[in-house]
Amino acid sequence: MLPELLRTMCALLGGWLLLAGPAARAQPLEQQPDRVLSTVGLRDVSSDAAGFAWVATRQGLFRYDGRQLVPLGQLIRQGPHPAGEATRVVVDPTGTVWMGLSGGLYAFVPATGELRQVLLPPRSGQLNALLLHRGALWIGRGLDPCQVFRLPLRQPRQPPRLVWQHPQGIVRAIEPDSAGGLLVFGDKQSWRLLPGGQAQPVATHSHRYRVQAAGGPRRTQVADHPLRLPHGPYYLTDSTLVAHRPPQPPRVLAHWRRSISSAAVPRLNVLELDSTWYWLGTGEVLALSIRRQRQPPVLQHFPLSLARGWNGWLCFNRDRTGLWAFAEGMPGVFTLQPRPAAVQALPVAGGQRLSTRVINRLADGRLVVGSYAGTFTQAADSPLAPLRPWPGEAPTTVWFCSLRLPDARLVIGLEDGHVRLLTGARFEDFVWAGPHPTPSGKATFCLLRTRAGQLWAGGQQGLFRLDLPHRTRTRYREGDAAWPLHHCEIEALSEGAGGELWLATNQGLYGLQPATGALRHYGPTEAGAHHLPTALLRCVLATHRDSVWLGTTDQGLLLLHPGRGVRQQLTQGQGLPHATVSFVLAPPPGRVLWVGTDAGLVRYEPRTGRRSDLTTAEGLATNELNRQSAWYDSARQRLYVGGVGGLSYLEPQALAAAEYRPRLLLTALTQHHAQPDTIRTDYLTGTLPQGLELAPGDAFADLTISLSDDVGPEGRFAYRLLGTGRAPWQELGTGNRLRLQGLEPGDYTLEIKAETGLGTPARNVLRVPVHARTYWWRRPGVWASLTALLMALAAGGVYGWQQRRARQREQQWQAERALRQRIAVDLHDDVGNLLTQISLQSGLLRESSLLPAPLVARVETLTTTARRATQQMSDAIWGLSATAPTLPELLVHMRDHAYEVLQPLGIEVSFDTHPAVAGLPLSVEARQALYLIFKEALHNVVKHAHATEVHVQLTPAGRALALTIRNDGPPPAAPARAEGQGLASMQARAAAVGGRVAYPVQANGFVVEAVVGG
Known about the structure:
Layout: H1 2-25, E1 30-33, E2 42-47, E3 53-57, E4 60-64, E5 69-71, E6 86-91, E7 97-101, E8 104-109, E9 114-118, E10 127-133, E11 136-141, E12 146-152, E13 161-166, E14 173-176, E15 182-185, E16 190-193, E17 199-202, E18 207-213, E19 218-223, E20 227-228, E21 234-236, E22 240-243, E23 251-255, E24 268-272, E25 276-281, E26 284-289, E27 300-303, E28 312-316, E29 323-327, E30 333-337, E31 344-345, E32 356-361, E33 367-371, E34 374-378, E35 388-389, E36 399-404, E37 410-414, E38 419-423, E39 426-429, E40 431-432, E41 444-449, E42 455-459, E43 462-467, E44 472-475, E45 490-495, E46 501-505, E47 508-513, E48 518-522, E49 537-544, E50 547-552, E51 557-561, E52 565-570, E53 581-585, E54 593-597, E55 600-604, E56 611-614, E57 625-633, E58 638-643, E59 646-650, H2 652-655, E60 664-673, E61 678-686, E62 692-694, E63 701-707, E64 716-722, E65 730-733, E66 737-740, E67 746-755, E68 766-772, H3 780-847, H4 853-880, H5 887-902, E69 908-913, H6 924-945, E70 949-957, E71 960-967, H7 981-992, E72 996-998, E73 1006-1013
Parallel strand pairs: 18-24, 40-44, 62-68, 69-70
Antiparallel strand pairs: 1-30, 2-3, 3-4, 4-5, 6-7, 7-8, 8-9, 10-11, 11-12, 12-13, 14-15, 15-16, 16-17, 18-19, 20-21, 21-22, 22-23, 24-25, 25-26, 26-27, 28-29, 29-30, 31-59, 32-33, 33-34, 34-35, 36-37, 37-38, 38-39, 41-42, 42-43, 43-44, 45-46, 46-47, 47-48, 49-50, 50-51, 51-52, 53-54, 54-55, ...
């Protein structure tokens, strides 16, 4: 009897270990229908290195990016456009897509858009099998006979070579075997291809197992024995899990109904992902961990509603992070993600749905939950144990808030306004100690214990102090009837860094210094730093001295700096799922905020701006979360959140590792082209290497993006355009289309980033060069060039005109010079010689003794006149000459002339010449004019002045020369008249060279002032 009892107990214990032990370690399999792929009848799927899936369906071949199916016809840029059903598809390492269509075998290159047909020998029968194996493409085709072709990938354009055929049968699949050879499967018979081109039949009763890891090639095993697991004496068949420890007989650990299969589908098609084997049964997915473990493996069953009676396929998704399950050729595709559960919903005994309020833990370790349906507890030894009603007597009113004291006792605020202390199983009331009647009947919403150990309570009747030792409560400033806090509902309390209390109310935010009673109000009626966009606050959390987070009922989440006002606002337009914020928590170390809303839970990192939305899709019991219904269990590092549909918990530290990092893909470009006026869509291969160019007049360019992992529509995207100064990130939300329009001409860099619904960033950031062109005549360089050209033309024209003027003046001067030189030569040679002869003859006559005395005076006058005429002629010739002495030579000539003219008359002459005069750059005309003016002035002195002394002064006047001739003769009886011949001659000569002559009035004598040159 005893041995039988022991065997029974061992069996029960073993069964419990099989069912309970591994289940605690089991990883849940998220399951949801792929609504895009479910619109077509899938037959085969293959993924490329960029992250796209190529889908063979009854409707043809499509490219799938996780959001959109793109028909092959829209991808082809050159080549034929075949139609009809697609049977098989594979993608080789170069990215070429090989596909079997109704018309035969085709090769498509996505990078170039080229589609070409691969010619096979003309035979009947469709293409049913494609396999990439050892650098070649293997093709199975035909029916009676059936054929296998081989096409080397290094020579993809040569015709495939026939390597084997059989007169009867059909090829349904070609698989690599575990030894590296090939297996050909038909409906009724299968073969193993030998290296020499021969085929060896395979026994019809053999089992076919195919095992493929996410990071490696697939291998198919044909054997008449079960498939052994990697660790331990455990084996799989197509319908059983067996433990076999020889010499003991095999023992069945689990049994299931195998999936419908044919020659195209292995009897057991196993996919390995994260050390777990997955395969299909009838109406379910089966999972088995192959990690080494002490206990026997336990099979998990996940129901799956695939179409019955059709070949069931299980394949990897686009990024090999999950699975796709479908019935071949039938609509209905399911995405299976074996990820750790982000959130766990807590069950309630009896299946009741709770609308929760209080969440806390009792002194004995039990979780306590207050709800509108009563108070519930959970056993302390299991986080997933169901919630059960409070054992024994408890307050019948709703628990609205709770506070755990350091000694593990609970302070509880109730719906009727009372506050109670729970010690073990005993409840004690905090007695009203105020002078006025007991405030009751209105709820207590919040409780707070300060760092100094003071207890506070807030509710519909204001702010209360709690005296724990005496179990009393009093209203703060009870005697002040006008105290503002008596007339508002206090929703939440938080202690600031300086010991101040922050109170979220239905009339705004209040900051209170309890010791002094100083009160600050923030609300929509306040100005400056005290202004808030709303007065309806739900929660408050003071994290730093300058950071107070506010949750509102209609304006989302606010970050308030007490001295500078609202610094940040997070609303629905910026990614918050709902404008109503129920609670805000910041578990240690405080870098992450957990924000409860009416549409889910948000994980928010203020420093980086990253946000993660958790909803029922991630395991949350409900999306509509209740106010203040959240609690962080620091001992177990769990966050509990409650709402109108139940209670959930998560482990924040483990949440970051719950997701795979996908790749960000650029899938399509839709662009308006002004020339011609068309809109064109180009489907891309994951990037845009050449960049994006916007021509003048192009209205817009739309970029379509996606994530390589099948994370669904909850993936979020953001972008920024560098090259326009400060470029903050702009949110796209869950929309995957980005539009560029209205760009100023220039060069930019478009950066796009993405993250999953849980906030896991993509592995890459897309960077797209963008060049916005403008009309050529609007380019700054063109205008600058045209302006420079016009200025150059104008400058050239002015320069040419000046050069022509200069050449004309030079020609005129040369002609005048030649004329003057000719006149001077003629005067010197003809008139000068005659005057010289007259002077000589008159001199000889004057010296003759035969000359009568009356004629002596006349001859003397004639001689003097002849000499003067010769001198005047010499001066005239010098004025006409094209050359003249230098200025120093001229000064010497002026001295000689003065002494020659004045000294014979007894008139003393003196010169005062400045040393700088000799270096003045006077022109030839100026020097000639100076000398002639000087001579005329001396002639006037000799003729009219009756002077005894003449003083000549020469000084520089800038670049000109100033000549002053002063005599001591008596002043003229009337002012000097410019109309006189001599004076007029001097002024004319000075004006001809840009100078002037003046005759200033003096008390004694006469002065001539002349300025020439400059």
